[in-house]
TrEMBL record, chain A:
Residues 68-118 form the NADH-Ubiquinone oxidoreductase (complex I) chain 5 N-terminal domain. InterPro entries: NADHpl_OxRdtase_5_subgr, ND/Mrp_TM, NU5C-like, Proton_antipo_N. It comes from Flavobacterium silvisoli. The lineage of its organism: Bacteria, Pseudomonadati, Bacteroidota, Flavobacteriia, Flavobacteriales. This is NADH-quinone oxidoreductase subunit L. Residues 135-423 form the NADH:quinone oxidoreductase/Mrp antiporter transmembrane domain.
From TrEMBL, chain B:
It is found in: Cell membrane. InterPro entries: NADH_UbQ/plastoQ_OxRdtase_su6, Nuo/plastoQ_OxRdtase_6_NuoJ. It catalyses: a quinone + NADH + 5 H(+)(in) = a quinol + NAD(+) + 4 H(+)(out). Pfam families: Oxidored_q3 (PF00499). Belongs to the complex I subunit 6 family. The keyword Transmembrane applies. It is a multi-pass membrane protein. The lineage of its organism: Bacteria, Pseudomonadati, Bacteroidota, Flavobacteriia, Flavobacteriales. Its EC number is 7.1.1.-. The chain crosses the membrane at residues 6-24, 31-49, 55-78, 90-111, 141-162. The keyword Transcription does not apply. This is NADH-quinone oxidoreductase subunit J. It comes from Flavobacterium silvisoli. Keywords: Cell membrane, Membrane, NAD, Quinone, Transmembrane, Transmembrane helix. GO terms for cellular component: plasma membrane.
TrEMBL record, chain C:
InterPro entries: NADH_Q_OxRdtase_chainM/4 (IPR010227), NADH_UbQ_OxRdtase (IPR003918), ND/Mrp_TM (IPR001750). Residues 123-407 form the NADH:quinone oxidoreductase/Mrp antiporter transmembrane domain. Belongs to the complex I subunit 4 family. It comes from Flavobacterium silvisoli. The keyword Transmembrane applies. One of its GO terms (biological process) is ATP synthesis coupled electron transport. This is NADH-quinone oxidoreductase subunit M.
UniProtKB/TrEMBL annotation, chain D:
Keywords: Cell membrane, Membrane, NAD, Oxidoreductase, Quinone, Translocase, Transmembrane, Transmembrane helix, Transport. GO terms for molecular function: NADH dehydrogenase (quinone) (non-electrogenic) activity; quinone binding. It is a multi-pass membrane protein. The gene is nuoK. The lineage of its organism: Bacteria, Pseudomonadati, Bacteroidota, Flavobacteriia, Flavobacteriales. This is NADH-quinone oxidoreductase subunit K. It comes from Flavobacterium silvisoli. It is an enzyme of class 7 (translocase).
């Protein structure tokens, strides 16, 4: 029974995918959307069932479905593991997934390929569930690559625009760089422990005795995989470009779920990372730097979705910071709250874009507060949450990260704090530019301003509520999440007793957030500043606006050399190699030409050659005869 | 020196001299005549061996038939003039060098190989009379003998065909 | 009932196709190829039940050549690859009108016959005969029914023919030498031979030359791209789908067990060359303007990885290589067929002339997409199973092999997706593009179904192949 | 009957034959006139024939003489055909200078 339910949980979105692929075109758009949504809701409900069951007996549920790949030292089966971590992820993946599916029914209604959209979305949920529920690394890898594929398909959903396709391709390829790291990490682990199964690995690693260098290598490689999927330095540049996809996609894949896969994986393998402090340090530094750099880029972006994208990168950086300190539960906490408010923000921005018929540039927005009150209020709540204002969800989770940072490393703490001040600033900049003062768009657009339909606003409201109360799952003191995750995490983490120390840190964080907000307020409300047109941006601002020219740098350092090499190979080396082969033939030809000259038809010459040859042969025979 | 040895040297000298002159004369007719002399001297050698049958056949076939053919051909081609251009000097030099080389090689080989000295067997049997040869030819070598006749026949037909005027090709 | 029946059936099919006349040729050929597929499945079944389906008979007394066919799991896997791909290839060609189609299809079946023989032969000379026999039909197929400028084609095909033949002659020399040592060409006798180190080196190199050209491993690949481009798509499929595998299979069956010590000694160089091929092929593919040439270079990259797997001399490497061979055989046939489908409609193979096909033909797009993804070894496709196992075996030998070989998953994604984007996506092309016909769809769906099924459940093939590989490995390690 | 070789010695005949043969070779190389070349060939054949007869006597056996007989038959046929060819060459080319006969040139 449980097996069947687990299979249903896994396969339900896949059924939705199949339906939409084969019949989606025949049924009406609403039906295809409804079925797509329903299948995800089924998974969500089942996740709740399993969750309730786990809460009761605390026993993880693990089954092996069939043998998959076998190599000489171990067999890999295709198995499902439903434990605390995977169920937690399942809950918010399918939960937020259902909301976003619901939202998409309305959002994508005018698109002729809506059934495809839902097919891909369902496929994504399926792969995401696979990623989460797999009982070994390789099954996770299926999901890992699968969500990458869906991300590719959905970023390039409007495939007629080659820029979007480029963005999709970029996302896929950068992810694949990480995937190679993941693969290598798996190879190292498999070579060391002859298994990829989590439970077996945990015991095996627990026994110790493994080569520390190899363990470090494995951890590093896995982390490289995580940087690809979770958009960390140096592989983060694909995520802002990924905003080319439809907004629900950005909300679901590039904010709430897929990009957290890296955190999931690191948390999953926490017993490995705990043994490799050097790698943990690297993770922490990478996370902090990512948070800072992405936040600073976000300061000056004018595309509403780009701002959110950099915000996502920055928040992911904070989560990795926590992971680097071994505070897995804190990272998971932030993942969950972040999923709530970031999804809400993206959906809200989608609602705005929907209302403005595709306009994404904040310079052409403004004053939408009155026209779109629900969107405004839900987004406002989420913005407060992400800025870390008490008592919204983001406050609690972010505060914990900062506290952990403070404990371990003061420098990283400062960096993270600066990043969160920046976050507060750019988020409120976004809000002010979008919703306050007068509308700056065309008359035509102004005329059509309207609040979005209820299918769009309901998910917004739900998510906004969650953004308010989400912090409750791990309030200091009660710390339900910490307890819940205890069986998963190898190392025990001490509770933060709420002393003065902690209150002071909370106060500092809150003050920082308020400083950021006031700064934004002064600049965009009081002064009424509107960002300049692209051409007028100068100086350091220009560097930031152009994302520190990192894309250009990558193009210059990696893409161009490879393309140059490809051109060199194609135009120079290939023909040269071909010529080498041909030269054998040419040599034979030359020999023949020379040989032909001997055959000149001169009988006298032939006779000479003949006689001399006879003499030579006779002499040879004679000499060998004598020698005997 | 026995008379026989003197005869041998005499004949050998004639053979070599005429053979050389055959090649050396500029006029083909002269060459042919020297060649006839050469053949006759070789027939003399055969007689020295007491091979009468061969000597006769040799004179008939070579001096009679083959040389007549040569002479006829020379006359047919009207080659009795001394109009032949000699080969380039280098070729002639080369020919001489090769001649010497070949001679040296062959002579050295025969010198170096086991020379047979002293008494030679004399079985006393008759082995080269016409009667004996006829027996051998028509018993043991009957088939090759018949083939030789076929060869000559074919050669004859071939010659006729070859020397026929090729009317069809000219058209 | 033994494996000779398959060979006979294919040979008879070839003759029957020739006699059937131009109108019926394709149908007769299809029928016989399906028959061969059925027969090989039946034989596979009896092999699984423990029946002996090998065949040994005498043929020539002096030199001693036996008519020996060895049908173990490995050989049967390759035979099945051949007999399964042949009907698909014939099916794929039904949309093309060929002049003299009776000759064409007879040659296709004959080639299938020769390749099957190569996979089965257990006698050196017999094997060599089949090996060279396979070259003749493809030469004519590419020469007579190929595309592009006739002079250019002639040059490319002649180069291919002489080049591969030249390489094979070294193998013949090696066989002659082995015969002088063993007094027999039989596989088992050759396995038992005790060669000195120098002898092994020379034998190994002679074999290597033959196989490196056929596979091809860089820098012996120069014939490949041009021939793939110039040959008719059916020829390209036969070449890339099956014929390349002849080289790889022979490495496992002949080269490694006969000269194991040399293989061990040269291992770093061999793997290095193979991996260089992976990277080189991928990079060259990036900038190809011709669709078929791009696929040719992608094929170069993939077979490089397979060869690297073979030369690791481990259980994983070999079984991964076999899996990858089969997967690559299917996927490359599918991809070339996709290129052909586009060619049928647009009459071009230049990537720049395509674009925007997706909006016109959703079904074809999906199938093409799946093939592209299989080619970049997305988990869930059989290619992933192969690539994973091969890379794993490489990582066991040296982690850097796996890192360098693994660049294929990045570069492969790069060039394949770039190609897909330029061919299928973008603004709608003004030209009409009819969606796939039924036969085209059947062919593609069959390939995709195979790849996906075994991608999730590769056990049957792994189990089939594993005993033979174990046997070969014991010979290698003795 | 006394063996004649007892008085002359086989080696004399061998040297004679060798020299005669070499003169033939020399003629073949030295002359351009095809007829003379043919004559040289005849000289070489005769050199061999002479040796045959000498050895026939040496062995006291008829076989050598039989071979001379056959060799003569072949020589006769050869000369007949050869001369016929020369005649036809002369008719076509107007010359029998072997340096002019270059039709074999590849």
């Amino acid at each position: 029974m449980e097996t069947n339910l687990a299979l249903l949980l896994l396969l339900s979105p896949f059924v939705g995918f199949l339906f939409n692929v084969f019949f989606g075109k025949k049924v009406s758009r609403t039906v295809s959307g409804a079925i797509g949504t329903l299948t995800v809701i089924v998974s969500f409900l089942l996740s709740i069932c399993f969750f309730a069951q786990l809460n009761q007996n605390g026993k993880p549920f693990e089954i092996s479905l069939f043998d998959w790949i076998s190599v000489h030292n171990f067999k890999l089966d295709f198995g499902i593991l439903l434990d605390q971590l995977s169920l937690l992820w399942l809950l918010f993946v399918t939960g937020i997934g259902s909301l976003i599916h619901l939202y998409s029914i309305s959002y994508m209604h005018d698109d002729e390929n809506m059934h495809k959209f839902f097919a891909y979305l369902n496929l994504f949920v399926f792969f995401m569930i696979t990623l989460v529920v797999g009982n070994n690394l390789l099954v996770m890898f299926i999901g890992w690559e699968g969500v990458g594929l869906c991300s590719y398909l959905l970023i390039g959903f409007w495939y007629k625009n080659q820029d979007y396709n480029d963005a999709a391709k970029k996302a896929f390829i950068m992810n694949r760089v990480g995937d190679l790291g993941f693969l290598i990490g798996m190879f190292v682990i498999a070579a060391l422990f002859s298994t990829l199964n989590y439970t077996e690995l945990k015991t095996a690693i627990g026994h110790g005795g493994a080569n520390a260098v190899m363990l470090g290598l494995a951890a590093l490689c896995l982390f490289i995989g995580a940087t690809g999927k979770s958009a960390q330095l140096p592989l983060y540049t694909w995520l802002p470009d990924a905003m080319a996809g439809p907004t629900p996609v950005s909300a679901l894949i590039h904010a709430a779920t897929m990009v957290t896969a890296g955190i999931f994986m690191v948390t999953r393998m926490n017993f490995l990372f705990d043994l490799t402090p050097e790698i943990q340090n690297i993770i922490a530094v990478v996370g902090a730097l990512t948070a800072l750099i992405a936040a600073s880029i976000g300061l000056l972006q004018n595309d509403i979705k780009k701002v959110l994208a950099y915000s996502t990168v920055s928040q992911l950086g904070l989560m990795f910071l926590a992971l680097g300190f071994g505070a897995y539960n804190v990272a998971v906490f932030h993942v969950i709250t972040h999923a709530f408010f970031k999804a809400c923000l993206f959906l809200g921005s989608g609602s705005v874009i929907h209302g403005l018929h595709g306009e994404q540039d904040m310079r052409n927005m403004g004053g939408l507060r009155k026209a779109m009150p629900i969107t405004f209020w839900t987004m406002m709540i989420s913005t407060l949450a992400i800025a870390g204002i008490f008592p919204f969800a983001g406050f609690w989770s972010k505060d914990e990260i900062l506290m952990v940072a403070f404990e371990h490393n003061k420098v990283l703490y400062v960096i993270a704090s600066i990043a969160s001040i920046m976050t507060a600033f750019y988020m409120f900049r976004l809000m002010y530019l979008t919703f306050f003062r007068e509308f700056r768009g065309t008359e035509e657009q102004k005329h059509h301003l309207h609040e979005s339909p209820s299918l769009i606003t309901i998910p917004l409201i739900v998510l906004a509520i969650l953004a308010v109360i989400g912090g409750a799952i791990n309030l200091p003191g009660s710390a339900w999440l910490n307890h819940f995750l205890e069986p998963i995490l190898a190392a025990k983490h001490e509770e933060h007793a709420l002393g003065t120390h902690e209150f002071m840190l909370m106060g500092i964080a809150l003050a920082g957030a308020i400083v950021g907000i006031l700064w934004a307020n002064a600049k965009y409300i009081k002064q009424g500043f509107v960002p300049k047109a692209d051409a007028e941006i100068t100086g350091f601002n220009k560097t930031i606006y152009n994302k520190y020219y990192v894309d250009e740098l990558y193009t210059f350092l990696i893409v161009n050399p490879i393309n140059g090499l490809a051109n060199f190979f194609r135009t120079t080396l290939e023909p040269a190699l071909g010529k080498v082969v041909y030269s054998l033939g040419t040599a034979a030809n030359g020999l023949a030409t020379q040989g032909k000259k001997l055959q000149n038809g001169n009988i006298g010459l032939y006779l000479f050659a003949f006689v001399i040859g006879v003499c030579a042969i006779i002499t040879y025979l004679f000499i060998t005869h004598i020698a005997q | 020196m026995s008379p026989i040895l003197i005869t041998f040297y005499f004949l050998a000298a004639i053979t070599l001299a005429t053979a050389f002159l055959t090649i050396y004369s500029k006029n083909p007719i002269h060459s042919a005549i020297y060649l006839v002399l050469c053949f006759f001297s070789i027939a003399g050698h055969y007689l020295l061996f007491n091979a009468q049958f061969l000597a006769i056949v040799h004179i008939i076939v070579y001096s009679g038939a083959i040389m007549v053919l040569f002479l006829f051909t020379i006359m047919l081609m009207n080659l009795n003039k001394e109009d032949e251009v000699h080969k380039p000097r280098i070729t002639r030099l080369g020919a001489i060098v090769v001649f010497i080389l070949t001679s040296i090689v062959l002579v050295t080989i025969f010198i170096n190989s086991k020379t047979i000295m002293g008494d030679y067997d004399t079985s006393g049997e008759d082995f080269q009379s016409i009667k004996k040869l006829g027996n051998v030819l028509l018993n043991e070598y009957m088939v090759p003998f018949e083939f030789a006749s076929i060869l000559l026949l074919v050669a004859m037909i071939g010659v006729v065909l070859l020397s026929k005027k090729e009317k069809t090709e000219k058209k | 009932m033994d494996v000779t029946t398959i060979l006979l059936l294919l040979l008879m099919g070839s003759i029957a196709t020739f006699l059937a006349g131009d109108k019926l040729a394709s149908k007769v050929a299809l029928l016989f190829s399906l028959g061969a597929l059925g027969l090989s499945l039946y034989l596979l079944n009896s092999l699984n039940q423990g029946a002996n389906i090998s065949f040994t008979g005498s043929w020539i007394d002096y030199p001693k050549v036996a008519l020996a066919f060895k049908a173990d799991g490995l050989a049967m896997a390759m035979v099945l690859l051949t007999t399964a791909l042949t009907p698909l290839i014939i099916l794929s060609s039904l949309g093309n009108p060929f002049n003299n189609s009776k000759n064409f299809y007879a040659l296709v079946l004959f080639m299938s016959f020769a390749m099957t023989g190569t996979f089965l032969a257990a006698d050196g000379l017999l094997y060599y005969i089949f090996w060279e026999l396979a070259l003749i039909p493809i030469y004519f197929i590419a020469l007579i029914w190929g595309n592009g400028d006739a002079e250019d084609r002639k040059k490319a095909v002649l180069k291919f023919f002489i080049y591969t033949l030249g390489g094979s002659l070294f193998m013949l020399i090696a066989f002659a030498y082995l015969y002088s040592k063993a007094g027999s060409f039989l596989l088992e006798d050759l396995y038992k031979l005790d060669l000195s180190a120098t002898e092994e080196c020379w034998i190994f190199l002679a074999f290597f030359l033959a196989y490196a050209i056929k596979i091809p491993i860089i820098p012996f690949h120069t014939w490949q791209a041009k021939v793939y481009q110039k040959a008719p798509t059916v020829g390209t499929m036969l070449l890339s789908g099956i014929m390349l595998k002849m080289g790889l299979y022979s490495v496992i069956r002949w080269q490694l067990p006969i000269a194991p010590h040399a293989a061990k000694e040269y291992m770093p160089i061999l793997i290095g060359l193979s991996i260089a091929g992976v990277i080189y092929g991928s990079i060259v593919a990036l900038r190809q303007k011709d669709l078929k040439k791009l696929l040719a270079y992608s094929s170069l990259a993939h077979v490089g990885l397979i060869a690297a797997g073979c030369y690791t001399l481990t259980q994983d490497g070999l079984s991964g290589a076999v899996a990858q061979m089969i997967a690559h055989g299917f996927v490359i046939v599918g991809l070339f067929f996709a290129a052909e489908i586009i060619y049928r409609r647009y009459e071009t193979r230049t990537i720049a002339d395509m674009g925007g096909i997706r909006s016109l033909t959703p079904k074809f797009t999906s199938m093409f997409m799946i093939l592209v993804l299989a080619s970049v070894a997305l988990p869930g496709t059989y290619n992933f199973v192969g690539e994973f196992t091969v890379l794993y075996s490489l990582s066991q030998a040296n982690i850097w092999y796996a890192v360098l070989g693994g660049t294929t998953i990045i570069l492969g994604a790069y060039y394949m997706l770039k190609m897909f984007q330029n061919v299928m996506l973008g603004e709608t092309n003004a030209k009409a593009f009819a969606d796939v016909t039924t036969t085209e769809a059947i062919t593609l769906v069959a390939i995709i179904a195979f790849l996906l099924f075994f991608g999730l459940y590769p056990k049957p093939i792994t189990d089939l192949v594993a005993p033979s590989i174990k046997e070969i490995l014991t010979i290698i390690n003795n | 009957m006394n063996n004649i070789l007892n008085e002359i010695g086989i080696e004399n005949y061998i040297f004679l034959s060798v020299l005669l043969f070499c003169i033939g070779v020399f003629g073949v190389l030295y002359r351009r006139n095809a007829i003379i070349v043919f004559m040289s060939i005849e000289i070489m054949l005769n050199a061999v024939n002479l040796l045959f007869v000498a050895f026939s006597t040496y062995h006291q056996d008829a076989e050598g003489q039989v071979f001379v007989f056959f060799s003569m038959a072949v020589a006769a046929a050869e000369v007949a055909v050869g001369l016929a060819i020369l005649v036809s060459v002369f008719r076509n080319l107007g010359s029998i200078d072997i340096d002019n006969l270059k039709n074999l040139k590849g």
